[in-house]
Amino acid sequence: MFEHITAYAGDPIFALVDAFNRDSRPHKVNLSIGIYFDEQGRLPVLRCVLEAEQRILAEGGAKPYLPMEGDAACREKVAQLLLGEQHPSIGQGRVATIQTVGSSGGLKVGADFLRTWLPDSAVWVSDPTWDNHRSMFEGSGFAVHSYPYYDATTGGLRLEDMLACLKGLPPRSIVLLHACCHNPTGVDLAPAQWDRLIPVLRERELLPYLDLAYQGFGEGIDEDAYAVRALAASGMTFFVANSFSKSMSVYGERCGALSAICASPAEADRVMGQLRYTVRRIYSSPGIHAARLVAHVLGDADLRAMWQGELAQMRQRMLGVRQALHARLSAVRPDCDLGFLLSQRGMFSYTGLSAEQVDRLREEHAVYLIRSGRLCVAGLTQANVGRVAQALAQVV
Ligand code: KET
User: Fold this and answer.
1) pLDDT-derived band at 309, boundaries 50, 70, 90
2) Residues with Cβ < 8 Å from 320, sequence gap 6 or more?
3) Integer Cα distance of 216 and 317 in angstroms
4) Which end of the chain has fewer CB atoms surrounding its CB within 10 Å, N or C?
5) Which of 17, 245, 254 to mutate to test the pocket of ligand 1 (most atoms within 8 A of CB)?
6) Counting atoms of ligand 1 from 1, which one is nearest the CA of 245?
7) For this structure, is 11 an active site residue?
8) How far apart are CA 286 and CA 175, in angstroms?
9) Distance CA 163, CA 297 (A)
10) Is 167 among the residues known to form the active site?
11) In this structure, what DSSP letter does residue 378 have?
């Protein structure tokens, strides 16, 4: 029956985590997967999340099925977090938000939905992008192409090439965009650059599909939602999948959402109905603990303030170790132009290291990066950054 099944080569990110866990060298440093660790190298449990869990327990523990679209309070708070509390599209009933199994669940539900309703469209992702984008959309049956994005010579953005490519796409092409903290490069569009991109998307009648996995890790909660709000202001129809895995440090709880910002309330109703049906056919309905966590943290003024403070601390710590890595590496390799380390934002930096150099870092120095050269700055600490800088200097 199963003799014909080929071996799975493994996921490039999760395979490295396994290899890291098996590594017995005490000085090993994990800069591979996009997970935030604190200054002690631990996965933090946020106080706002602990407090929310205590309240959830105190409320009693009945665990009914949620509806296909998830919990109403959670969905309402998510829409407000993305668009801003008073956004007219919410009041007008033009936003269809479903709670999903992580943002991966949201991306996938959106991909399946689009494959049914825009079957002639292709998907365009940035070059490079998170590997799983391609896998997910191809898995839903789409052809996936890439548009120019990262400039390897400057460590910045190829905006003109990107715009030129998008101007040539057929109407209704689906354009996947990282709303902030681009994975894997850390290179984002500045607000003025979004303002140039959005008219192109609108004139070409393209469908923007935003991936917002790192809200609050770039500049701040509202700043990182610039693309969402600017697209909403443009009157365009678009999708946004967002995640709380990183921003609330609740990776294994699978807290995410998918929102469709539509042209009219009637359209939003129909989209919502078909999203519910898409969910029903995959996993039926999302988890209730995830819903309660998000609803409590976003819905209670004290917990919300606590979350904002804790998120700011994570953001500032990442900025601090980013600067420390730049300073340490500049000291040992004054010959290298390392300005990109400071201009890139969020969890990742794209080092430009080759796969062979990354292999040497891992084998000779126990420093783990993704083979694309992506470095997760959130795994750096003031204690290990000097050693990482030394190791990097030796393989370049
Ligand atoms: N989008 C992006 C851009 C992303 O980097 C991740 C996770 C996700 C979505 C999925 O997040 P979720 O937990 O499903 O809400 N990225 C890290 C982990 C992974 O590969 O799954 C990473 O790139 O290391």
Assistant:
1) very high
2) 382
3) 13
4) N
5) 245
6) 13
7) no
8) 26
9) 38
10) no
11) G
